[in-house]
Amino acid sequence: MAKIQPAQDESLLGTVFSNLIRARNFVTRQTAAVVNTTCQYVTSPEYRKRSHDNVRRFHNERPLLTVFLAIQFALASIPLLLFLGYVASTVLVGLGGALVFSLFWTGIGLFFFGCALLVSGSIGVFLFISFILFQRAVQLLNALTSTLSQGARPSQEQEEREQPLPKAEKILRIVDVKQEDGQNGTQGEKVNSDKEL
């Protein structure tokens, strides 16, 4: 095993510290840039300048704490971004799944709705045609019945003439005849009509 010389130890330690200082400055600059660009959209320029001055003063007063907080923030931002991506993808997959689920069952319902609509429409057409046929059959039966009744029986006017009229109807007919003649009838007609009664 080779022994490490003291001069090499000092240069190794100096390199580590210089790298830490460079990393601290880099993290500080990057954090300030991110905070600055984010705050441009939210706060006024005066508030941003005061905050920037406060952060710079805190960094100058406590550089190690600032580096620790910056490293923690930088490392915590990775899981935070992963978690936010996971949540966003879960929401998108859930919404996509819900949309596919809804569209699938809507399609199934639409199929059954179309079948029910086809059946009810067919029943409606059948009932309409049945109604038309029934109406035509009733008209045909009425025409056939009236034709048969005219050939076998005398007309209604003939039946009325053949039936004897009651006394009250005879009187009314006589009065009607007198009114049509302009009440020009003679006394003899009255007497004859009374005898008939």
Automatic annotation (TrEMBL):
Name under which the protein is recorded: Uncharacterized protein
| Keyword Transmembrane helix carried by entry | yes
Q: Where are the transmembrane segments?
A: 64-88, 108-134
User: One matching Pfam family, short form?
Assistant: Promethin
Q: Where is this region: Disordered?
A: 177-197
Q: Which UniProt keywords apply?
A: Membrane, Transmembrane, Transmembrane helix
